[in-house]
Design goal:
heterodimer, A: 297 residues, mainly alpha, ABC transporter involved in vitamin B12 uptake, BtuC, 2 strands, B: 259 residues, alpha/beta, Rossmann fold, 6-stranded mixed β-sheet, 10 strands, 24% strand, globular
Chain lengths: 297, 259
Amino acid sequence: MILFSILPISLQQGLAYALVALGIALTFRVLAFPDLTVDGSFPLGGAVAARLIVQGVDPTLATVAALVVGFIAGCLTGILNTRLKINSLLAGILMMTILYSVNLRIMGRANIQLLYRPTVFTSMENLDMPRFIPIIIFFLLITVVVKILVDLFLHTEYGMALRATGDNENMIRSLGVNTDNATVFGLGLSNALVALSGALVAQDQGFSDVGMGIGMIVAGLASIIIGEAIIKPKTVFRLTLAAVFGSLMYRFIISMGLRLGLAPTDLKMATGFMVILALGVPAFKKTREGKIHLRGV
Amino acid sequence: MLAFEGITKIFNQGTQDEKRALNQIDLEVDAGDFITIIGSNGAGKSTLLNVIAGTYQPEEGRLIIDQQDVTKTPDYKMAAYISRVFQSPTMGTAGEMTIAENLSLADCRGKKRGLKWGVTRARKKRYGELLKVLELGLEDRLNQSVGLLSGGQRQSLTLLMATLSLPKLLLLDEHTAALDPRTAAKVSELTNRMVKENNLTTLMVTHNMKQAIRCGNRMIMLHEGKVQFDIEGKDKENLTVEEVVKRFGSKLKDESLLS
């Protein structure tokens, strides 16, 4: 019974946050760049979309704008790292911190209500069926389309150069790729997906909040770890599939935990422990066999 | 084709650890030359290759390729002229990508990379035929990741990748040193064949005197950042290890050079 009642909500959330998992897979796994911008670019997407919608901009246009701004934020982290030679983790933290203020500026206050505003979901809400059905279908479509586009991109000449940048930077430089530019572009792409997710989640939940990105990286990492434990990421196709599937599993586990009495305030701690456990247990066992190979961590 | 004009490379300039890795080097390389470079540890062999490849920029002097000054050109732009094979087999290939993908990465060397499909059917067919030459059965494993290959297989693949889109200049940096003797001999033989077939201008750094004497049409010995010895043509063909030891034994403290 519990299973059945939490299925719609975990499906909906899992798909809504799958774009974040895809974005994190792009940086951590493909580029081997531990990008922490995510905690800032997710609410950035929400902030941009919410502010524009309140201003009367078409919600679809507002969502696209959020994606573009997320791309720019990611590029800036990349520039901090490649041009100013700031350590990758620090570059992400700096950007995340700066974005906190930026998000407040964009919204003008800590949160914006969207309840009675037109959103990309408005037309779906007037259908004669439970709200979650068209919304799940919508998120499913978006996720599948983005996943396929990412898969295709990573098999193009430039996409392969991006993968090689994460795999063997010296080698691909000696083959004529400016890996600095590749890193900047890859980070931009990743944060564009994250901001898109932020924009859609804000519209779905009916508000944008400056704090809605806290713990997003850890949640995304947990998703990827869960996904990769089940689907071995031997190819690009499987890597992105693992991210999407992991996001679904993670939200399902979280919903289950909440239903079984986990306090919502302890959620981020529980997620953190989940990641520590997954990364730490192999060290206890003292074997490298079976270790979850998570590049960038 | 390639010219060094008074190239000096100094590491840790202005500190106590200052080291002149290359000291006023002048060198002319003609098209079609296959030059072997020897010298003991710290003689400046690898630095020489790194300066050519643009990994290091020299403090003094000019580097000319085909009448163009490329002294300040960064490494990723030098890729248009140069192919490189490193010492460690893992350095020249992307381990998590497939054999076909690695070859395709090398296929685009120095060219603009866009949104065209990377491993096309036509390319795959071509790679399969090229891999047959290696006689390692890799042509049947195009979709396997390179990480599954042995060191020798990986280095042979790197060599094929380096010669794929015929470079103006091929740099080999002790590329057989990390392999077991039998595999090293095979890769070495493959190198000779590929250089000859494609008439590639080649610079090969080696620690192995016999290999340096056996390969190529010209041999250079570096010592303390200077060219100590430069021999080519008939003289090079008649050169023996004993003769080199007799003339330079005192400077070859490095025993491994003579093995």
